[in-house]
């Protein structure tokens, strides 16, 4: 089994109850050999083996493309929505369903008199991707059976069994509960279905991490510095970073005895400590992190660039992918690879941070371009001066098909003791040697 196929065979095998592994491998490889796209091939395999052996699955087993299966869980939340499908107005019901392995979002296409708290067995459901998540779908072609409440106690559902620390809330969570302090908070007006609504946005923190939040409900009496406990908040994901959303199904209460918590406003709101690159690489996205390391590469695309005045995209020869020929705006950026000995991470710096690290203003860089009649002169100068430099960056990380990138909000040259750095490196090497015998 080659390295490309193996993880997909394992994923499909788990989804199908760890059966037919060899048959799954053979079927998937046959489809790929016929140049069938990977995701389409996986859907075909799932449908084939589901039909031959319909079985019950758990939330953790859900994979886009599955259909015809049975799943049992508790309705954690449900709301009615008005939508337009193929120019037709219809009512659907969306919410979240949980079992002992996790929680997933669902959409029910028909009114089946479901309520929050119901324990249900759903037969002939299917799965699609929606907003970068697997989502469960069912409707009139499905069979929905209500079960006794004690069939699946709340204590068996992870998200309902108690609060989590912020560092443990990830992109796979649908709902979350926690105890935090508000470290940033502001109000913003948004247009929603033709009316203006005021929402609350900000940053929450505990002793382990910080996360952004948005509240669609009033937070009366809550401000910066308030300690709160929340339950059943929705977890949204943007560029791999989870954010907390308070809605009608969320309970938010002030914490009266905050002095008993393992963190204070000052300790939770202080700047983050530097993380090893290896930990950043292990996550799909992280909020407000710091990385310190050596610049091992200044990547092409650094230096002077031009942007579209409408959408801010980088242009090529005054041509924007979305708006065609435009009168461009000059800008400067740096695309770096930072290495701290545990891994290498891509880092993006805007013009302000590029000026601080490069040591030259954008005006000076533009003059270099005019004098040499080449934009590459700034890139080459950056590469010559910055490769090997030791810098610190703070920002958010996200993962795409090219790897993990930190978009820096601040960057600087840190003070460090060379002897201490060498000693730390030797200590790390010694620990690895000892661990390997």
TrEMBL record:
One of its GO terms (biological process) is double-strand break repair via homologous recombination. Keywords: DNA-binding. The keyword Cytoplasm does not apply. One of its GO terms (molecular function) is DNA binding. Gene3D superfamilies: Nucleic acid-binding proteins (2.40.50.140). This is Single-stranded DNA binding protein. It comes from Methanolobus zinderi. The lineage of its organism: Archaea, Methanobacteriati, Methanobacteriota, Stenosarchaea group, Methanomicrobia.
């Amino acid at each position: 089994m080659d390295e490309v196929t193996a993880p997909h065979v394992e994923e499909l095998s788990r989804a199908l109850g760890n059966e037919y592994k060899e048959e799954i491998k053979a079927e998937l490889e046959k489809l790929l050999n016929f140049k069938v796209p990977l995701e389409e091939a996986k859907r075909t395999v799932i449908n084939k083996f589901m039909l031959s052996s319909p079985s019950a699955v758990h939330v953790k087993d859900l994979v886009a493309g599955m259909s015809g299966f049975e799943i049992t869980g508790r309705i954690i939340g449900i709301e009615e929505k008005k939508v337009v499908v193929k120019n037709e107005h219809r009512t659907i019901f969306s919410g979240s369903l949980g079992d002992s392995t996790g929680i997933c979002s669902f959409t029910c296409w028909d009114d089946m008199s479901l309520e929050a708290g119901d324990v249900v067995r759903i037969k002939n459901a299917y799965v699609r991707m929606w907003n970068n998540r697997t989502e469960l779908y069912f409707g009139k072609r499905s069979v929905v059976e209500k079960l006794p409440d004690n069939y699946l106690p709340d204590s068996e559902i992870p998200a309902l069994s108690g609060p989590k620390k912020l560092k443990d809330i990830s992109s796979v969570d649908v709902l979350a509960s926690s105890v935090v302090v508000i470290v940033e908070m502001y109000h913003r007006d948004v247009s929603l279905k033709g009316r203006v609504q005021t929402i609350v946005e900000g940053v929450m923190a505990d002793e382990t991490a910080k996360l952004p939040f948005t509240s669609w409900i009033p937070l009366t009496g809550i401000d910066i510095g308030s300690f709160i406990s929340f339950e059943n908040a929705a977890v949204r994901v943007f560029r791999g970073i989870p954010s907390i959303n308070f809605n009608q199904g969320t309970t938010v209460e002030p914490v009266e005895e905050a002095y008993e918590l393992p963190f204070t406003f000052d300790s939770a709101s202080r700047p983050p400590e530097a993380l090893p690159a290896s930990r950043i690489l292990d996550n799909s996205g992280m909020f407000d992190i710091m990385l310190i390391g050596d610049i091992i590469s200044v990547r092409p695309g650094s230096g002077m660039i031009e942007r579209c005045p409408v959408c801010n995209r980088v242009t090529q020869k005054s041509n924007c992918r979305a708006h065609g020929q435009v009168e461009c705006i000059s800008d400067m950026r740096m695309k770096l690879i930072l290495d701290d000995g545990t891994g290498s991470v891509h880092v993006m710096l805007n013009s302000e941070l590029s000026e601080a690290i490069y040591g030259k203003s954008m005006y000076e860089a533009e003059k270099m371009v005019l004098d040499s009649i080449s934009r590459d002169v700034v890139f080459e100068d950056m590469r010559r001066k910055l490769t090997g430099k030791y810098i610190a960056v703070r920002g958010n990380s996200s993962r795409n098909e090219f790897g993990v990138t930190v978009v820096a909000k601040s960057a600087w040259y840190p003070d460090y003791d060379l002897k201490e750095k060498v000693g730390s490196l030797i200590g790390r090497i010694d620990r690895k040697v000892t661990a390997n015998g």
